[in-house]
């Protein structure tokens, strides 16, 4: 393979094993039989494999390494999830490397290709089809966050905010709000959250408006300005996440709307910064500490050779100053 650096992926293909098995063989870990180990070492010698300094650091003997893949480190929700996962992994003595895909599909596949041969397991927000993820990760354990699992080597943690969004709409309606809009994810519209919102409105005999917004404070500002321009009597607003909600509150007040008197706002995620803005943000809270801890727990189950049950984290309505 002149001109191209030989990778763990090449050794795994040559030996007919997973990347994880190659890692364990090269580091003389005990969870591999002698025949398989010898086959891997023979393939490595034949190909002239030399592990990179980075790969050697990640696959040190007796150290379990986990790749954590998230779409946006600037979004405090994902930062909180990463922090919780790091804390849970640290308690087990594991090594965690965090990757930010910027919500881009090609970047996600590139990330999986890089880390699939360098870690023992992967946790993250992955959008690629399960067969594609399996092809890029070579059979190592994968824990999905926010989607269903697919196969024995996959774990899954679902985030269910339906009850929380129904509770949010019910609270707004009980307060006399009847012209309620939503700022959705601009790239995922219609999202499950907007479907829950519309279902909740219908249960109260109401209809509403959904507008895609950028996943940022600026996206919330632009989105609420557009909604208020189209519907000046808007008196309630739900948002895809708290970051959008913070921007929406800011711009609504700049446009002369009192929050919550003229227009109540409820976000989604429950990030800590929401309690620090003025007025404090009402939200559908997801327990990020539980989410991160469960992800690491599922990795441990998969590494032990078992298949974890799908776990669901349910969102709950937290009322503060904006609704």
TrEMBL record:
Listed name of the protein: LacI family transcriptional regulator
InterPro entries hit by this protein: HTH_LacI, LacI/GalR-like_sensor, Lambda_DNA-bd_dom_sf, Peripla_BP_I
HTH lacI-type domain segment(s): 6-60
Organism: Pseudonocardia xinjiangensis
Entry keyword set: DNA-binding, Repressor, Transcription, Transcription regulation
Coiled coil ranges: none
């Amino acid at each position: 393979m002149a001109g191209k650096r030989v990778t763990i992926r090449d050794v795994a293909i040559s030996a007919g094993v997973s990347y994880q098995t190659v890692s364990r063989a090269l580091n003389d870990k005990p969870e591999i039989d002698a025949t398989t180990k010898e086959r891997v070492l023979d393939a490595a010698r034949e190909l002239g494999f030399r592990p990179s300094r980075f790969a050697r650091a990640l696959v040190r003997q007796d150290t379990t390494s986990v790749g954590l893949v998230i779409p946006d480190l600037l979004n405090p929700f994902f930062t909180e999830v990463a922090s919780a996962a790091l804390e849970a992994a640290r308690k087990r003595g594991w090594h965690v490397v965090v990757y930010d895909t910027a919500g881009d599909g090609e970047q996600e596949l590139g990330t999986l290709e890089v880390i699939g041969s360098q870690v023992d397991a992967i946790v993250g927000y992955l959008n690629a089809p399960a067969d594609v993820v399996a092809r890029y990760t070579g059979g190592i354990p994968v824990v999905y966050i926010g989607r269903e699992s697919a196969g024995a080597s996959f774990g899954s943690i679902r985030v269910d905010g339906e009850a929380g969004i129904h509770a949010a709409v019910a609270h707004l309606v009980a307060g006399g709000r009847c012209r309620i809009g939503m700022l959705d994810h601009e790239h995922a519209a219609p999202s499950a959250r907007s479907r829950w919102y519309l279902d909740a409105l219908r249960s109260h005999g109401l209809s509403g408006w959904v507008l895609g917004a950028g996943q940022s404070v600026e996206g919330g500002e632009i989105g609420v300005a557009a909604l208020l321009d189209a519907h000046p009597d808007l008196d309630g607003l739900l948002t895809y996440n708290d970051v959008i909600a913070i921007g929406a509150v800011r711009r609504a007040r700049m446009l002369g709307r009192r929050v919550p008197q003229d227009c109540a706002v409820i976000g989604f995620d429950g990030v800590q910064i929401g309690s620090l803005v003025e007025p404090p943000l009402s939200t559908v809270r997801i327990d990020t500490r539980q989410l991160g801890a469960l992800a690491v727990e599922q990795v441990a189950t998969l590494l032990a050779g078992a298949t974890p049950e799908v776990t669901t984290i349910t969102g709950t309505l937290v009322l503060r100053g904006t609704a």
